[in-house]
Amino acid sequence: MSIKIDYELCSGCGTQDEPPCIKYCPGDLIAVDSEKEKPYIRSERDCWDCMVCVKACPFNALETRLPYQLASYKASLKPQVYQGRIVWQLKDARGKEEVFELKTSG
C-alpha cells in the first residue's frame, strides 16, 4: 500500500513550519516540492502503511491506496479523525463506499 495526495484538497499547510504529514511520518518519506510548495512521497515502496500522515492531515487530502492484491487501483481507505472516534471510509474498485466508525479513548 501507499498513500495518495489529493492536490486539490492539499493546501501545503503554508502557515506551518512543517506540515503534519511530514512532521509525523516515522519513515521520513514525505517532503515538500519547493516549486509547488506541496508535499510529495519520496519513495512509495518504502511506505509501511502506518497511516500516521493520513490521520494527521487537517484537510483530509491524503488517502491510502489498497494493494492490487486486495482491490484495483481505484480502491482507497481514508480515515477521518474526530474527538473520541475515527471514521474509516472505504471505496472499492466499483466506487461503492462503506463507512466504519471506531470509538477511541481520546
From TrEMBL:
Boundaries of every 4Fe-4S ferredoxin-type domain copy: 1-35, 37-67
Keyword Cytoplasm attributed: no
Pfam families (UniProt xref): Fer4_7
Keywords, in A-Z order: 4Fe-4S, Electron transport, Iron, Iron-sulfur, Metal-binding, Repeat, Transport
InterPro entries listed in its UniProt record: 4Fe4S_Fe-S-bd, 4Fe4S_Fe_S_CS, Fe-S_Ferredoxin
UniProt-recorded Gene Ontology molecular function terms: 4 iron, 4 sulfur cluster binding; metal ion binding
PANTHER family the record matches: ADENYLYLSULFATE REDUCTASE, BETA SUBUNIT (PTHR43687), L-ASPARTATE SEMIALDEHYDE SULFURTRANSFERASE IRON-SULFUR SUBUNIT (PTHR43687:SF6)
Protein name: 4Fe-4S dicluster domain-containing protein
Organism: Iocasia fonsfrigidae
The organism's taxonomic lineage, starting at the top: Bacteria, Bacillati, Bacillota, Clostridia, Halanaerobiales
